[in-house]
Amino acid sequence: MSFFLVSFHSMTSFQNQTHLCIQEILYMTDITNESAYNAIIDTLETFYERNDSFYLIIETKNVRNVHFHYLYKFGNYLNRLKTRNPQELKQTQIYVYDDFIYNLLYTLFVWISKPIAPVKVIYYNGGYNDMSNEKRSIKKIKNFYPK
Description:
This protein is an alpha/beta fold. It has 3 helices and 6 strands, in the order ββαβαβαββ. It has a 6-stranded mixed sheet, covered by helices on one side. The termini are far apart.
């Protein structure tokens, strides 16, 4: 069964150098159909419509299946976002728990589309479970940078 839930759950502000930035959290699930894909894009668009600088955290604990078609489609979306000026997204952190999602992100940011802003992928040990990230050990961290 494929389902989706995308929400921006947290809007905590914090001081970054000399200006205030918002932290947005995107909870992702499977991306196997247009509805799931469009829900993600719609949510990201709401972040941009605020016209405020923001940091993005992407949680992938509920992602088990992503069709490659949507990976390429998302890469095209990222390329379109790069043309926006000013660019409000300042940095992204993505939490991953298995090789499949880690490798999808590697493919996305190396072969399909460079990121808009710096991306830090944090790969946690332990797979999918209810353990908080604070209690997990980190398997590896990979940084991706815009061109």
